[in-house]
Amino acid sequence: MPIDIVVDAMGSDKAPEPEVRGAVLAARQYDVRVHLVGPEDKIRPLLRQALRGQRLPVFIVPASEWITMDDKAAQAVRAKRDSSMRVGLRMVREGLVSGSTHGPGKAAAFFTAGNTGAAMATAKMVLGMLGGVHRPALATIMPTSRGVPSLLLDVGANVDCDPDNLVQFAVMGNIYAKNVLHINTPRVGLLSIGEEDSKGNSLTRDTLPMLRALQGINFIGNVEGRDLFNGHSDVTVCDGFVGNVAIKSIEGCAHLMSQSLRESLKSTVTSQVGALLSRRAFADFKKRLDYSEYGGAPLLGVRGVCIVGHGSSNERAIMNGIRVAAEFAQAEVNSAIESTLQSA
């Protein structure tokens, strides 16, 4: 049975074109039905063009408003009651696919490449929180030298955290790594400035013994920033301030590496010949660092599935975001999180 994924068609920087094209790619490649939420007059011509006469399960759900990157999250969430974000998350909350012409279905997950703050605020308001969860956490997939992705959370949902929050993030990240990334016994680390127990600030030092005492996770102690890429840990936990600084620094570094490599390969005839001979290797290198391959960041802890993509997402990133949303919905992550935290 195909799974129904709801997409905010007005989220990305260049919306709705990447969303429409990404939805069509996902419908071709995966067993999904995609519901694009937004103004029909903007979406319909692009969808007709992208389909090229094909009959694919991509549908339009009307919404008269949308939240931009420049909108203040709290104000936009209250004022734009018919936004594509709010309509889409309401569909997930109600479990129904409404507004489309293909008949009844069940909305399993929501994806947006829109305003991250608004997405988090709207998800908390519309979907609500899982039982036992104090705060949601935004997680992101990281490439590693081992070839196995790792998970970093929180990367921006909570600027100020206490030790109890980080413990809950560890539990949620551990379950996501097991159920979605299919890592049997994830190694969970606490991001700090040194491996020694005495290193770090008051938050990490107070959190460390609580994670050591936590049953049901494979906690390996403090990890450092370099461990985000060497595969030393499968799940790395931090507060949203540190996580957001880390992820944006990583994005900037990846862009610098890519740009510098491109300039170096064009600098001489010899390097250009070498680049041609190594084209496949460079393509593989770029793919490993390309955010579009990872699909988006799950918002863990809300009562439903909400995936937040990058604002500059292209059609491939949208397609992979839809894939991640479907995998999350099918993995029963939320029920495992709820039962684990309520029994703790």
Note down, in words, how this protein is organized.
With 344 residues, the chain is an alpha/beta fold. The chain folds into two domains: 167 residues, Isopropylmalate Dehydrogenase, CATH 3.40.718; 159 residues, Isopropylmalate Dehydrogenase (3-Layer(aba) Sandwich). 47% of the residues lie in helices and 16% in strands. The chain contains 13 helices and eleven strands. Strands 3-2-1-4-11-10-5-6-9-7-8 form an eleven-stranded mixed sheet, sandwiched between helices. Helix 7 links the parallel strand 7 and strand 8. Helix 1 crosses helix 2, helix 4 packs parallel to helix 5 and helix 6 crosses helix 7. The chain is globular. The two termini are 35 Å apart. 48% of the residues are buried. About 1% of the residues have low confidence.
